[in-house]
Design brief:
about 230 residues, alpha/beta, Chloramphenicol Acetyltransferase, 3-stranded antiparallel beta sheet, 7 helices, about 35% helix
């Protein structure tokens, strides 16, 4: 993977709060979802769809690097749209064995994310039957929450069927974080500063390490429109 970078940004208040809660914790916080895809699926086409979405959103190419003497890392955006991909054919196994093997494929979440080097997007595609597939998406919580995972699944689905509008402008998370930090630093925006600080202080990320664990399965029919 290329480590060429295009930008570095301060963390958002939510990310700062997450870092403080995660400090000294042996369990990394992560977000994960599983889509059950019914019907034929082209693995190469799916890889290309995910790559296009990763390229579209900087937060999916963002790592977190610390400089000496600084308590908090910076968001560093990589040029590369690489992501971790693993595909496996589980058609010869019964359902119980398939679930067990899928858990093994997803692996140890605490060890899988290299937050300093990336990639931060991890994908497992398991073929359960000729017309049934499981697509598991995993990201560190610094890059995604439940709503972001839902949006990610929807964009991947639209990219796969060729319905993703690449011409539309995308609001990048690092820009929002920088605006938020400028707002907090301004003497003219004390009301906004107190609001964002209280908002970030009251967020509880402690449950994220188990969020969607065991795979909260959702049919991909909700995301993949009928052709």
């Amino acid at each position: 993977m290329s480590n060429n970078t295009v930008a570095g940004f301060r963390l958002s208040t939510q990310q700062e709060r997450l870092c403080s809660q995660q400090a000294g914790n042996t369990s990394a916080f992560w977000a994960e979802c599983e889509l059950l895809v019914e019907g034929p699926l082209d693995a190469a086409k799916m890889q290309a769809a995910i790559s296009s979405v990763v390229q579209r959103h900087e937060i999916l190419r963002t790592v977190f690097q610390r400089q000496t003497g600084l308590k908090l890392p910076f968001q560093v955006i990589l040029e590369s749209s690489d992501f971790a991909w693993q595909a496996s054919d589980l058609t010869g196994l019964d359902e119980s064995s398939q679930r067990e093997q899928l858990h093994k494929l997803v692996g140890n979440r605490d060890a899988k994310f290299d937050l300093e080097q990336g990639p931060v997007v991890h994908v497992v595609l398991a073929t359960l039957a000729s017309s049934q597939h499981s697509l598991v998406l995993s990201l560190p919580a610094l890059c995604a929450d439940l709503r972001a995972m839902q949006n990610l699944a929807g964009e991947i689905a639209r990219a796969y069927v060729g319905r993703l509008d690449d011409s539309a402008d995308v609001m990048q998370y690092a820009d929002v974080a920088e605006w938020q930090q400028e707002l907090l630093a301004s003497e003219e925006t004390k009301t906004g500063r107190h609001y964002w600080r209280d908002y970030g202080r009251n967020l509880d990320f402690s449950s994220l390490d188990s969020a969607l664990s065991g795979f909260e399965r959702k049919s991909a029919a909700e995301f993949f429109p009928a052709s």
